[in-house]
Structures are given as structure tokens and as C-alpha cells.
Amino acid sequence: MSVIKPFKGYRPPVDIVEKLASRPYDVLNTEEARKECEGNPYSLLHVTKAEIDLPEGTKDSDLTTYIKVVENFNAFKDFGWLVQDQEEKLYIYAQSMNPKEADARWQYGIVACAYSEDYINKVIKKHELTRKDKEEDRMKHVRITNANVEPVFFAYPAVNEIDAIVNNIVRHDKPIYDFIAKEDGFGHRFWLINEKATIDRLVELFATKVPAMYIADGHHRSAAAALVGQEKKEHNPKHTGKEEYNFFMTVIFPDNQLQVIDYNRVVKDLNGLNKEQFMKALNDAYVVEDMGTEIYKPSKLHEHSMYLDGHWYKMTAKAGKYDDNDPIGVLDVKILSDNVLDKILGIKDLRTDKRIDFVGGIRGLGELKRRVDNGEMTVAFALYPVSMKQIIDIADSGNIMPPKTTWFEPKLRSGLVIHTLE
User: Fold this and answer.
1) d(CA 337, CA 349)
2) H or E stretch including 92?
């Protein structure tokens, strides 16, 4: 079962929260981050991507960058831009991609600390591989700040009583933060859970009703936080298991509120084939239909769309080319990888091959068309998004998804609350 705990979060004053809350460190490159917080000293990007405050060309992995991280983080606390709650709390964080619409869809997560041992013991389950270099980069950030500056994005199998508690709070209490981010128009709301009885009941419900939690987004941050906790445990001869370093900050959403967006592929060339040869090769695994020049979006599982030479095509996988009884074999990313990217286009390793790139569905299929039409790429493939059930099935089976399979939106805003390991 799942362990969560409240914590004394560091939070910004209401009057600067919109300026301080930022997009996650891995969504922006250095130049984009520098531009995004130009003229805004409050942006948490000064802590999560501190190289923006150093001379151009400074890398995020340079020692001077890590020194600047600590300097900026301490300054945020000294200036009163981050103030610690006096009591341990849980929090509620809601997000919407269409907050101004009358029928806006919101998702409501509980902000809590998860238990590092649950990650080590696989009660917290993952569906992606992590890279050691990225783990170490995030571990350095946790070590030098002694904090989880950015949360990780978890899902859990929905529990009616947890939903009822959250619904009661958001229906009757005014959120302490409520703003629409200017960069993307997404809505963000944030509540404090102050009542100890409510906090205790939520902790109990996770311990008795939630058999596992699933990393939706933030695999490297989860690994880094858990591993730093293990380091501190090994270096503390008086370790009890109750120290704050045993826990790391998460936002935990019920699985039935989350929406997974498609994650698409663009390829530079046809591996020496001409168009006719390539189209003929596709017929082995797919029924291919020309859909004309208007953008065509896949409408169901085992259907892809392809953009090539100014036309969109519907690609329907043939029976025998997928296995609906296998948590990996059912995935459209696996079907495309095996039957097209590998077999026809010669792309063996999605992580290292420079001939392929990946485009999050949030950018729309027009981005695929643009990158092919401008000559940068030759062919693009759009995929039907995976479901939360598929993600949970894979994580439960101990399997790992192919690279670049899931894309979650909205991304968690960083800076609404921070957890320190003290």
C-alpha cells in the first residue's frame, strides 16, 4: 500500500505567485528560459535553470551553475518570496487546459510527500527507463538545495472517498492561488488542507485503499529524490526512517481524471527507398488509404496517420501485427517501431538514432506537416494516444514502454510549493 505524508511547504505570497510559478526545468532550453523570465526576478527558473543568470554559454551542469542555484534559492527565502508553512499540510492542486470555457475540464491532485522506500520497493511504479546522467543531474540539484524544488506527477487508481474529500474542499473553500498562466493559457488553482482530521484520513486512505502509485511524468526526478534519500540514510548512523529526507514531493492525481496526449514521430529520410517502394513496403503490415491534403488524425487504437509528399494517409494495422493480450504488443508505438521504423526505415534505437525526432501532441499535427513541408523531415507519423489503463498495465507487469510514448498536459507548475529535506 502507498505511504503519503503532509509537510511544511515553502510557498510564495499570493501577490507574486503568478510571476514566481514557472514551467518545469525540462520543458524549456536555456535560451527559452532566459527569454521567458526576462525582467522577472521572481521566476523560479532562476532556481531550476540558474545558468540563465550566468554568461551565455554556461552549461546547466557547470559548477558555477550549481553555486548559482544555491545562491538564488537562498535569496528567494531571504527576500520572503518563499515562506514556510508553520504546520504540516497536504494541498490540492487543480489544472485546466481550457479554464475560460464554461465546461472547462479540471483535474485535481493531492500534493503530498511520497516515501522513498516505496520507490525502491516498487510500490511506486515506473513505465520508462531512466538515464544515469540525467538522474545524477537531478540528484545534484536535490543535494545542493536540500529540497525537492519541483514536484513529480503521479497517478493512482481512483478511490471514491478520496474524491469526495477533495470535492468537498474545492466546492466550499476558496483557492489560495488561482491564475491563468500567460505562456500557455492553462489554469492553475491551489488549496491548503489545514484540518488535521482530514489530513489523517487521507493518509489512512492511501495506506489502505491505494495499492500502488504510478509515475506519470518525472521519472528522473523521482529516481533522483529517492536515491538522495538513500544516500542520506546511509550516512546517518542515527537513521530512524522518519527523517524528512525519506520523503519527496509529488502531486497525485486519480487515474480517471488524467488525459494522455499523443506523442508523434518525424523521420529525415526513407532509408534509400523512393516513395513507391516505401508505400509498397507498408502494405505488409498496414492497409494504407490516401486521405488527401487535409490533416488526418487517428481515431482509434491500431490506426496511425502518415504525412508524406503533401498527402495524409490512414494506416490501419493488419491482424497479426499486434497482440492485444500483451501490455507492450498492444501499443501503437510498438507496432510502428517494429513494422516501419525498424523493418523498413532501419531505425534500431529510438534513443540514439539522429534520423528520428519526436513531437508532443500538444503542438498539433500541423507541426508534423510543417517539418515535412520545409524539407527538414521527409515523413511524419501521428499515433493514437495510449490510455492510463495501458500505462498501469505495463507498470504492473514490470515492463517498460518504448521511448517517447506518453505526453501529459498540463505540465505541473513549479514553485506553488517546495519541500525541503530538513
Assistant:
1) 10
2) strand 90-96
C-alpha to C-alpha distance for 388 and 385, rounded to whole angstroms: 10
Helices 196-209 and 160-172 cross at an angle (nearest 10°) of 150
Residue 59 has pLDDT above 90, yes or no: no
Distance CA 137, CA 25 (A): 12
More confident of the two residues 128 and 253: 253
What secondary structure does DSSP assign to 218-235, as a single string?
-HHHHHHHHHHHHHHHHT
CB atoms within 10 A of CB 59: 11
Give the Å distances, CA to CA, from 158 to 90, 214, 233, 256. Answer: 18, 12, 32, 7
pTM over 0.90: no
Q: How many CB atoms lie within 10 A of CB 317?
A: 18
Mean pLDDT of 153-181: 97
207 close to 3: Cβ distance less than 8 angstroms? yes
Angle between helices 132-145 and 219-234 (to 10 degrees): 60
The pLDDT assigned to 73 comes to 98
Contacts of 228 (CB under 8 A, 6+ apart): 139, 142, 143, 245, 421
Give φ, ψ of 191 to 5 degrees.
Answer: -120, 150
Distance CA 207, CA 199 (A): 12
φ and ψ at residue 228, rounded to 5 degrees: -65, -40
Question: What angle in degrees, to the nearest 10, is found between the helix axes of 132-145 and 63-78?
Answer: 40
- Residues sharing a CB contact under 8 Å with residue 28, sequence separation 6 or more, in sequence order: 36, 45, 49
Locate the DSSP E strands across 268-351: 286-292, 303-308, 311-317
Before 410, cis peptide (omega within 30)? yes
- Please spell the DSSP secondary structure of 303-327, one letter per residue: EEEEEETTEEEEEEEPTTS--TTST
Asked if residue 281 lies in contact with residue 352, where contact means CB atoms within 8 angstroms, the answer is no
